[in-house]
Write a structure and sequence with these properties.
This protein has 195 residues and is mainly α. It has nine helices and no strands. The N and C termini lie far apart (80 Å).
Length: 195
């Protein structure tokens, strides 16, 4: 069957995003391109360019989708006892199950997030969850919030160790849970006494 005829009317941007993610999972970031993505969906490159202006635009949309999924996983996990630890475990599990996507989301290709408002908004959603998780400790913005940065640094570092093969994947969830259970987040500095 000719692949150009395999795509039928529907949501072409969603189909392109799904194909890009499949390529990312199978062959890595360098293999993702608009032409290859269009070919997988069965449309012309011109059709793909109507929805995404460049490879980076396509990748930013894929990463934004990933941040939305990560936020949903963290939100769902944070219900009940120990919400911050549970959200951290969801973060680590997401990274382990979506290695190529995780590398894209936090990699250098999309470092200039301000160029992609949708990606920036999706990233802010994950940051908001982190801040909410430590709100009882410190209510400052993320870049000035030691507790939130410590929590994020811990789960992000563990996630990268797993994704990059330095942390044994077979025991990753159990070991991450043990580590998170032993961590005490820093308390905010005492406020200056009134004079």
């Amino acid at each position: 069957m000719n692949s150009r005829r395999s795509y039928r009317h529907g949501n072409l941007p969603a189909a392109l995003l799904a194909a890009a993610r499949q390529i990312l999972d199978e062959n890595g970031l360098q293999a993702v391109g608009l032409r290859e993505t269009a070919r997988r969906v069965g449309v012309s490159a011109t059709a793909a360019y109507r929805h995404f202006t460049s490879k980076e635009d396509l990748l930013a949309s894929v990463a934004a989708e990933g941040f939305h999924e990560l936020a949903a996983a963290m939100q769902s996990a944070s219900r009940g006892a120990n919400p911050l630890s549970r959200a951290g475990l969801a973060y680590i599990e997401f990274a382990d199950q979506n290695r190529g996507l995780f590398r894209l989301m936090f990699g250098p290709v999309l470092a200039e997030r301000t160029k992609y408002p949708t990606l920036q908004a999706a990233t802010a959603g994950v940051e908001a969850l982190l801040l909410r998780g430590v709100a009882d400790l410190d209510q400052r913005p993320l870049n000035d919030n030691l507790a939130a940065m410590a929590a994020w640094g811990l789960v992000h570092g563990l996630s990268h160790l797993i994704v990059d093969g330095f942390f044994p994947a077979a025991r990753a969830a159990v070991q991450a849970e043990e580590i998170l259970a032993k961590i005490r987040l820093p308390r905010p500095p005492a406020s200056e006494p009134a004079r």
